[in-house]
Write a structure and sequence with these properties.
heterodimer; A: about 170 residues; mainly alpha; two-stranded antiparallel sheet; about 5% strand; elongated; B: alpha/beta; Rossmann fold; 9 helices
Chain lengths: ~170, ~240
């Protein structure tokens, strides 16, 4: 059976750059951002429990109880994602700056027959990281929105449940 | 042939190059001499298209663009290799980017200078870095090899070895433009000397012609630069207060 190997990222990065450190740093921060976003779940299930009262050992829905809006529950949960997106921009700048560190390898890059090679190697990985960050953040928002919509008991969603949703996304 | 016509480069209102015109035909080893700040590096950077300039630079009648840039290589004392990359990885990179890259020459020169292949170039000594820088320029498969003070920091034995190897490996169509302060050292190795001062070409001579006239390259350079041999003794006298 053929062993599955991840495609090498090195040929999409500035030559000689320690791509493993960069990749590990990104994955670590993505994990941290994901954990931070899970704060939503803590808030959500806390509020969810408040919808009920205990009657003779049975959880009973409190009449007229309502969940806060989705945006209120999401407050600050996605805070690390914009930061992560900014870091990918910083990584792109660092990739360009790399060609002035320890030597002037920029001279080599600027005289390659392929005029896009420098930009390809400086921008590809940050753009991929930015894409992953955005898609992952949207996926998490989608999952949290689905939980909010479908786990919340019918009638407990406030009329303005989705007000401020786009503020959360953007 | 690289043809430079009326090349002018201005930095902050100062003319680093002033109406420079020069022809670099194939098959010559040319020494480019001048004081620090004379315009040697600027001239090379203009040829490579790193700097904007006024005037015209052509390679076989065509402007130097990405289409023909692979025909010019560059070795610089600032170094243009990738410090985090090994020699083997450089070979792969160059072979992928420059279609005429000579792996055979690369292997030969790496063996000759006994440079490590699997260590990042950043961990090399200064002399080794210079050697590797020049190896890359020589192996790119370029017709025109521009070298800007490539031996700064190398000891005399290293340099002598390099001159010999260079003379031995260069093909008849390859041109070397070598900027250096080591005039006497390269005088037996270059075929032509170009002198630059304050951004202007002040001398351009074939070394053979000088030999026929019974003059040395150093004498020619001193004459062209109006070198005053009494300058040092005068300065010393002034500094020590002694009469000449």
């Amino acid at each position: 059976m053929r062993k599955f190997r991840l495609p090498s990222l090195q040929r999409h990065a500035p030559p000689g750059l320690n791509i493993k450190a960069e990749r590990n740093g990104f994955l670590l921060l993505l994990g941290a951002a994901t954990l931070c976003s899970a704060n939503f779940l803590l808030w959500y299930f806390d509020e969810y429990d408040r919808l009920f009262y205990n009657h003779l050992g049975i959880k009973t829905l409190t009449p007229h109880a309502q969940m806060p809006t989705f945006a209120a529950l999401m407050e600050n949960s996605m805070l690390l994602f914009p930061f992560l997106a900014l870091l990918t921009v910083a990584a792109a700048i660092d990739h360009y700056a790399y060609h002035w560190k320890g030597s002037k390898s920029i001279y080599t890059m600027r005289r390659l027959p392929n005029r896009w090679e420098l930009h390809r190697r400086c921008l590809t990985l940050p753009l991929i990281a930015l894409g992953i960050t955005v898609v992952w953040a949207l996926a998490l928002i989608g999952i949290y929105a689905a939980i909010y919509q479908f786990v919340t008991p019918a009638g407990c969603l406030p009329p303005d449940a989705w007000d401020g949703f786009w503020r959360t996304v953007l | 042939m690289i043809e430079i016509n009326n090349l002018t480069k201005v930095y902050n209102r100062k003319r680093a190059l002033d109406e420079v015109s020069l022809k670099l035909p194939q098959g010559q080893i040319i020494g480019l001499f001048g004081e620090n700040g004379a315009g040697k590096t600027t001239l090379m950077k203009c040829i490579l298209g790193f700097l904007r300039y006024e005037g015209e630079i052509t390679l076989d009648g065509e402007p130097v663009t990405r289409k023909n840039i692979a025909r010019i290589s560059f070795a610089t004392c600032e170094h243009s290799f990738f410090p985090g990359l090994t020699a083997e990885a450089h070979k792969e990179f160059y072979a992928g980017q420059f279609p005429a890259f000579s792996a055979k020459r690369f292997e030969g020169l790496m063996d000759f200078f006994e440079l490590p292949r699997k260590k990042p170039i950043g961990s090399f000594s200064t002399g080794q870095k210079n050697q590797f820088e020049v190896i890359l320029a020589l192996c790119q498969g370029a017709d025109y090899i521009l070298m800007d003070e490539p031996f700064a920091g190398n000891d005399i034995f290293n340099r002598e070895d390099f001159y010999k190897v260079l003379l031995g490996i260069l093909e008849p169509h390859e041109t070397v433009l070598l900027s250096t302060h080591l005039i006497e050292e390269v005088s037996g190795f270059i075929g032509r000397a170009v002198l630059i001062r304050n951004g202007r070409i002040v001398g351009d001579v074939m070394v053979d012609e000088l030999e026929e006239q019974g003059r040395t390259l150093m004498e020619y350079i001193k004459t062209t630069y109006h070198y005053r041999p009494d300058r040092v003794s005068k300065a010393l006298n002034e500094l020590t207060g002694e009469e000449g």
